[in-house]
């Protein structure tokens, strides 16, 4: 009983550190893609995190599709990285899955992203290819509301 | 000290009255003045006093800085500049605090490496050593959170990278990460709690320092020959002999400290930290403060999966392990001989370890590419081999040189070279 009582008293003191209501309220945004030309990327802010929105060129899509899954540390096909019918759009949280730096675009050994902090290389589908990062760049939950409007979160 | 009787006699009726109620003067005389100290301590032993003083310097300057600092994402950066430009004497006070962190770490590394060479961690001083490692860990946490407070680019990305280490914990990683940050990314909530904890931890350190000194005063100091004190002929009272020696060392130590503060207050920092934090752009080359570089090199040396452990978790395990392994050192080193001076096989491995540690620091600052990646792996391997293989084996394989029978004998048998104090090891 004493343990339960102490735990009940301590928990609010720990829970106060969790994301508060004002942070959670910003959990969903809409973004208009129409201004982004092919080969361009923008970084937008979602839940305080940077998010890459990249309009991929067809060469980049071909390059990503040609990679055999055996070569991948975190195997995912290009189709799993995009939405059907919108495969030119790559939308990913822009924090390296190693320790959270923002990778540099159109860089690295695989023409995708390169994280300067600890040397992780990502390919044109944002998949980890080399370096200490364990996972592919994380995809946020998002949906296409129309061809040019996307809702993230 | 265990067999040491108090020699205090109250000099007045008031002192007698106090002594009967709270014998604090008696306690101080026993522990701060009469405390019997081996008479052969060299200057490597002065860093304990230097460190105690550095803690005081950091707390005093820190309290003053907190009177002018604003822990808010939109104002923190400007408030630090305000301290440096507008507050009376703020330029110097802020520099003392910032440079002081570096000097604190310089002193603690010398203190630790002295302990490693002279076997200061061996029985009966294991708890003394463990408390020391605990202080080191608390210092790192404090310094890291302090570095975040100016809210420059390096502050922000240091906070992002270091909190992300906790995300490597299987299953609970992400909830723990959000708990630590108070959000999905490092933001105002993070800055606020870091300020709170940065103010708290130095006082926790001070408390552990008290325990550290308590644990020191039970067996008494170790010494360069590593032979225990046998009689009062082996010791001198702490005051005036070591108070004066420590004071002299402090003055010498303060010369480079003052040089940095007055002439190059930013030279140990990084220019990117004079750009305000921006969560959308990472500086192209982020490096931690110099005193974290060896451990940072170990963290990123693991860029490959180890069985089911992915590279990120692997790096974190090695990073944490490189510090936690120090807690077990008293039991990893199997040699009965304390001082490296009497261990011919230990010495080259020890100095290679020192060089290797400096190399790790260099690699931590180098970009993560090419030959640096390979070298970091080799240096990381040696760091762990030293503790896990070399030290356990050496105790069995090595024939130590004959030990002097007492501290007095070792001092008297030295050829007289003019100076009264015995020279440093090596």
Notable features of this structure?
heterodimer; A: 153 residues; alpha+beta; four-stranded antiparallel β-sheet; three-stranded antiparallel β-sheet; 20% helix; globular; B: 426 residues; mainly alpha; two-stranded antiparallel ribbon; 2 strands; disordered C terminus
The gist of it:
With 153 residues, chain A is α+β, with helices and mostly antiparallel strands. Chain A is 20% helix and 26% strand. Chain A has a four-stranded antiparallel beta sheet with strand order 5-6-7-8, with no helix packed on it. A three-stranded antiparallel beta sheet of chain A has the order 1-10-9, with no helix packed on it.
Protein model, in words:
The complex is a heterodimer of chains A (153) and B (426). Chain A has four helices and ten strands; from the N terminus they run H-H-E-E-E-H-H-E-E-E-E-E-E-E. With 153 residues, chain A is of the alpha+beta class. Chain B is an all-alpha fold. Chains A and B meet through loops of A and helix 7, helix 8 and helix 12 of B.
Count the DSSP helices of chain B: 16
Strand order of the largest sheet of chain A: 5-6-7-8
Fraction in beta strands of chain B: under 5%
Structural class of the secondary structure composition of chain A?
alpha+beta
Widest sheet, order of strands of chain B: 1-2
Report the count of strand segments of chain B: 2
Mean pLDDT of chain A: 89
What is the N-to-C succession of helices and strands of chain B? HHEHHHHHHHEHHHHHHH
Assembly type of the chains comes to: heterodimer
* Count of helical regions of chain A: 4
User: End-to-end span of chain A in angstroms?
Assistant: 41 Å
Query: For the report, how would you describe the main beta sheet of chain A?
Result: 4 strands, antiparallel
Rounded to the nearest angstrom, the radius of gyration of chain B is 24 Å
Secondary-structure element pattern of chain A, one letter each: HHEEEHHEEEEEEE
């Amino acid at each position: 009983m004493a343990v339960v009582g102490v735990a009940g008293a301590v928990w609010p003191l720990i829970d106060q550190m969790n994301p508060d209501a004002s942070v959670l309220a910003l959990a969903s945004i809409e973004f208009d893609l129409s201004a982004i030309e092919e080969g361009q990327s923008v970084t937008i802010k979602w839940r305080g995190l940077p998010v890459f929105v990249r309009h991929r060129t067809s060469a980049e899509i071909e390059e990503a599709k040609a990679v055999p899954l055996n070569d991948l540390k975190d195997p995912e096909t290009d189709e799993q990285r995009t939405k059907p019918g919108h495969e030119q759009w790559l939308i990913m949280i822009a924090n390296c899955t190693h320790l959270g730096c923002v990778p540099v675009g159109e860089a690295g050994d695989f023409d995708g992203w390169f994280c300067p902090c600890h040397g992780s290389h990502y390919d044109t589908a944002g998949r980890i290819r080399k370096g200490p990062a364990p996972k592919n760049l994380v995809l946020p939950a998002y949906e296409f509301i129309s061809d040019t409007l996307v809702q993230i979160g | 000290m265990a067999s040491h009787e108090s020699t205090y006699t109250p000099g007045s009726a008031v002192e007698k009255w106090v002594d009967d109620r709270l014998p604090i003067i008696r306690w101080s005389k026993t522990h701060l003045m009469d405390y019997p100290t081996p008479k052969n301590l060299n200057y490597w032993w002065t860093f304990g006093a230097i460190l105690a003083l550095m803690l005081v310097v950091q707390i005093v300057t820190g309290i003053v800085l907190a009177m002018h600092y604003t822990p808010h994402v939109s104002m923190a950066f400007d408030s630090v500049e305000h301290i440096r430009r507008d507050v009376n004497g703020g330029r110097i006070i802020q520099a003392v605090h910032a440079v002081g962190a570096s000097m604190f770490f310089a002193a603690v590394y010398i203190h630790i490496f002295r302990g490693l060479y002279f076997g200061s961690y061996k029985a009966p001083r294991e708890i003394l050593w463990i408390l020391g490692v605990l202080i080191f860990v608390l210092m790192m946490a404090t310094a890291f959170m302090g570095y975040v407070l100016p809210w420059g680019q390096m502050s922000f990305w240091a906070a992002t990278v270091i909190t992300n280490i906790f995300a490597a914990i299987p299953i609970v990683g992400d909830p723990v990460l959000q708990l630590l940050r108070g959000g999905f990314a490092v933001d105002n909530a993070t800055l606020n709690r870091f300020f709170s904890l940065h103010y708290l931890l130095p006082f926790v350190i001070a408390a552990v320092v008290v325990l550290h000194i308590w644990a020191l005063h039970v067996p008494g100091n170790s010494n360069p020959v590593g032979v225990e004190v046998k009689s009062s002929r082996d010791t001198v009272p702490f005051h005036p002999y070591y108070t004066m020696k420590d004071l002299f060392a402090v003055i010498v130590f303060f010369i480079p400290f003052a040089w940095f503060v007055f002439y190059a207050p930013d030279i140990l920092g990084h220019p990117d930290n004079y750009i305000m934090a921006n969560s959308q752009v990472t500086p192209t080359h982020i490096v931690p403060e110099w005193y974290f570089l060896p451990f940072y090199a170990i963290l990123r040396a693991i860029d490959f999966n180890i069985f089911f452990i992915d590279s990120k978790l692997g790096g974190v395990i090695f990073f944490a392990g490189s510090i936690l392994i120090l807690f077990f050192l008293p039991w990893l080193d199997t040699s009965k001989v304390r001082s490296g001076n009497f261990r011919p096989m230990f010495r080259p491995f020890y100095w290679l370890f020192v060089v290797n540690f400096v190399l790790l620091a260099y690699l931590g600052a180098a970009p993560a590419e090419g030959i640096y990646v390979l070298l970091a792996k080799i240096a990381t391997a040696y760091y762990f081999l030293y503790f896990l293989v070399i030290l356990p084996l050496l105790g069995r394989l090595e024939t130590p040189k004959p030990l002097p029978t007492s501290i007095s004998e070792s001092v008297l048998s030295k050829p007289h070279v003019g100076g009264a104090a015995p020279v440093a090891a090596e």
